Amino acid sequence: MARDNNTSIDEIQALAEEKGVDTSFYYRTTFQRYTYQLRLMAQLQRDIEADGMYVNRERTKGLVNRVMNPAITEFNKVATAANNTVGTLIKIVQSADSMLDVPVIEEEL
Question: Helix and strand tally (H, E) in the chain?
């Protein structure tokens, strides 16, 4: 999974550089958010693999319920957000010609 993500990240970055939007504040912050979301998904996936699909939840009076791992729900939420974020990145790169007025940042974030 990590290798595929790195490939797609490299492809997005290369296309952004080719279009000249890689220094756009909007692009850089969106790209940074996307890479964070990918790292978060990888961590959630490791947690799910380690803990399993179901976990025990202790309730009051010592009762234990077997419930679906909450990391699964969080993984799905982050995956949806990452899909939306990469869609935004693609739109930024595709609309590079109309983004000439977007401020350029010189410093590292």
Answer: 3, 2
**Cβ contacts of residue 38 below 8 Å, gap of 6+?**
5, 9, 82
Which distant-in-sequence residues (6+ apart) come within 8 Å of 99 by Cβ? 21, 24, 26, 92
pLDDT at 100: 54
**CA–CA distances in Å: residue 70 to residues 43, 63, 76, 86, 89:** 13, 18, 10, 24, 29
Pairing of strands 64-68, 54-58: antiparallel
Per residue in 13-71, pLDDT (tens digit) is: 998 999 999 999 999 999 999 999 999 999 999 999 999 999 999 988 889 999 999 99
List the one residue out of 75, 73, 89 whose CA is nearest residue 34: 89
Six token digits for residue 78: 């982050």
